[in-house]
Specification:
mainly alpha; 8 helices
């Protein structure tokens, strides 16, 4: 064992830089979910949006933003994109949530409120007043 100890220490020192943090690790299934964001079927897109948000998959952020900006997209899917962004990058999503808090569609406004609820408490959300005054049921 004494002869192996230096070899094991050298191997550990060599492998140490190869370790990744939890934020950098790509979860299983991420590749498929990134592809699924572009599917025509709204159910597959919704599943992918939930996945990339739950795993805070930064690689998906631009595609999720495309879905959010797409005015021809179903309002519920756009809302799910907003929720995913709030999990992926809360600070940047705060501005998105503020913009969508005044959206004409109540489904999108509800998603904006849900996204705001998930944001860290230290993020100032100017849109809260808009949401509190919203008369939609």
């Amino acid at each position: 064992m004494h002869r192996l100890k230096p070899i094991l220490l050298a191997a550990a020192a060599y492998l140490l830089p190869l370790t990744v943090t939890a934020e950098e690790a790509i979860p299983p299934g991420a590749g498929r979910m990134l592809q699924q964001l572009g599917e025509e079927d709204w159910i597959l897109r919704a599943e992918a949006l939930n996945y990339v948000g739950a795993h805070r998959l930064a690689a998906a952020e631009e595609k999720v933003r495309e879905i959010l900006r797409d005015e021809s997209e179903q309002p519920w899917i756009r809302g799910q994109a907003l929720l995913a962004l709030a999990r992926i990058d809360p600070r940047r999503a705060a501005g998105d949530a503020s913009r969508f808090a005044g959206h004409e569609n109540v489904v999108v406004r509800v998603a904006a409120a849900a996204a705001i609820e998930t944001l860290p408490a230290d993020i100032d959300i100017a849109a809260l007043d808009k949401l509190l005054e919203d008369s939609a049921p």
